[in-house]
Amino acid sequence: MGIAGFGNRLPLFVEETPMKNVWGWSCLFSLVLAGCGGDSHQVSWEGTVTIEGKPLPENLRVAVIQVRPMREIPGVAPVQAEIVDSQFFLSGIPKGKVWVTLIIEQKTGKIIREKYAPEYEEVVNIVPPSKRNGFAMEVMGNERKMVLDLKK
């Protein structure tokens, strides 16, 4: 009977011809090479975020770092990563002047009840006031391990 009711003939998307294989493999190989070269205008950071030298508390609602170029660069989007156990990893950071924004909110344990809204858990922003709107940094390209110690 053949394969799944197709008789002795395979469906078109399964049939193999030498040219289809050559074309498919060459496309795949080109994509792999494009991804392996790396971009010398971008770097990766592996880092730690602390506040006054201490790790971030465990009862966080959200902890995110975002880095974007200070000036708009065509084709370069902001990059962001979640901060877990005070650690983060970012790739695709453009070299040059960047703006770093941190959003770190801690649960207080207090439940807020309002008259015409569902109750919710209170959170507070624990990023020091001087850093809440973000801060500028210069990315030279040799930074690999970052420690961002936020001072109050």
Kindly summarize this structure in a few lines.
The protein has one helix at residues 18-36, and strands at residues 42-51, 54-55, 60-69, 79-82, 87-94, 96-114, 117-125, 135-139, 145-150.
Question: How would you sum up this structure, described in words?
Answer:
- This protein has 152 residues and is mostly beta strands.
- The chain is 12% helix and 48% strand.
- The chain has one helix and nine strands, in the order αβββββββββ.
- It has one helix at 18-36; strands spanning 42-51, 54-55, 60-69, 79-82, 87-94, 96-114, 117-125, 135-139, 145-150.
- Strands 3, 4, 6, 7 and 8 form a five-stranded antiparallel sheet that branches.
- It is elongated and about 55 Å long.
- 9% of the residues are buried.
Describe the structure using short key phrases.
about 150 residues, elongated, 4-stranded mixed β-sheet, 9 strands, single chain, mainly beta, about 10% helix
